[in-house]
UniProtKB/TrEMBL annotation:
Residues 72-186 form the Phospholipid/glycerol acyltransferase domain. Pfam families: Acyltransferase (PF01553). This is 1-acyl-sn-glycerol-3-phosphate acyltransferase. The lineage of its organism: Bacteria, Pseudomonadati, Pseudomonadota, Alphaproteobacteria, Hyphomicrobiales. It comes from Rhizobium rhizoryzae. One of its GO terms (molecular function) is 1-acylglycerol-3-phosphate O-acyltransferase activity.
Amino acid sequence: MLALRSQIFNVLFYANLIVRMIVLTPVYFLLPRKKAYSVPRAWARSNHWLMEKIVGTTFEIEGLENIPETGCIFAPKHQSFWDTYALLPWMSDPVYILKRELTWIPLFGWYLKKQRMIAVNRGARGKVMVDVMRRTRLEMDKGRQLIIYPEGTRRPPGAEPAYRYGIARIYRDVQVPVVPIAMQPGLFWPRRSTMRYPGHFKVRILPAIQPGMDPDAFFEHLIDVLEKASDEVLLDAVERNPDLPLPPTAAKRVAELRQQTGAP
């Protein structure tokens, strides 16, 4: 039954994306950019509804008061496709740095371009990256929220941290607060899997790290606060959902944390 519900959700999830892009294209491209953002925001909300009603997965957000009213950088954990769209309803004007190949996808790529997402050739260096930083600063000057995954790619829950220093360079150059976000959606929407698991989990938005720190000190601090919070929400998810099948990385990390605290 769980496998069937997972497949029904997957079909409806992609149908929801495709149908909305086709039907709402005239509205989306005629509206000013900021007003057009209501389309992907509503799409994200509808995905949450589908996952709750079909799979039985729900979540709660802690720390919404930690989101600055000015431009900032969101630095969330990245474990599945879920976390690429999940927080859109709570963002006022997000911008992503993403691989340019995504902008080549018909309709989907046009939607990205409409929102002025920053496409980059991941293999590029030198002048191309200078241009990316220039465009990033231009968007941030407009008060937008830049979303950067500090580990660069999806990681399984509980895996050893593998942060990339690029976020420290952007923090140094852009001079805006960085908001770490701890969550464990990979327990319920695993990467490289079609299974979706029911349960409830927390998304924890941590206090913003203000600009002005030494980049190396900032980098160490980001890893420290984000990993501690990630361990806490991992334990919380496991305690709330005792029947949840854990990937080996998560099971290993939970055992380590319980041993450290003396918990059973």
